[in-house]
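re: that chain from earlier
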Amino acid sequence: MSDPLQPAKTSPMRPLPKLIFASRWLQLPLYLGLIVAQAVYVVHFLVELTHLVEAAFGSQTALQALINSIGYKTDAPITTLNETVIMLVVLALIDVVMISNLLIMVIVGGYETFVSRMNLEGHEDQPEWLSHVNASVLKVKLAMSIIGISSIHLLKTFINADNYSEKVLVAQTVIHVAFLLSAMAIAYTDKLMSSTANGKH
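^ sequence. v structure.
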């Protein structure tokens, strides 16, 4: 009689299923590439932050670099750091952070879900959301992150509205609403699927 505490023995996989299953490792270079992109974002963040600090101490070169970076234009020449420029730069920095969070979510959650387990259970630095991540949870979290990024972009556009045409303002608003509705639809669909799955048990 078999011991119920012993794990069930699995038969060796046939060559074709084994090859198909092993093909998940083809995603590894993609996640490594996203890590490189994350590093580029870190460098960009530090450069913009350095320019902001230098401009705060009166550097005209840093101030002009910030103005060019955020695309801020005004009829009066800007010789000192003003509130609008600071706000646009800070929003740009927040935008970088949110995109960086999105990258981490895709890298860590995607690897854990689609490639291989990281065995982080019990690790003191394990992200809270990773303990119950699956394809559906990851999809909803990504949708919410995209809405947050879109909100920051929309806010930056409205603050700097004088430099955009009415057509651009309307288009960005419509796109943001589309993202919002898409995220709501994804969350509602996931809720229905979860209810159906629970009802079958």
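Helices lie at 15-22, 28-56, 60-70, 83-115, 135-159, 166-200.
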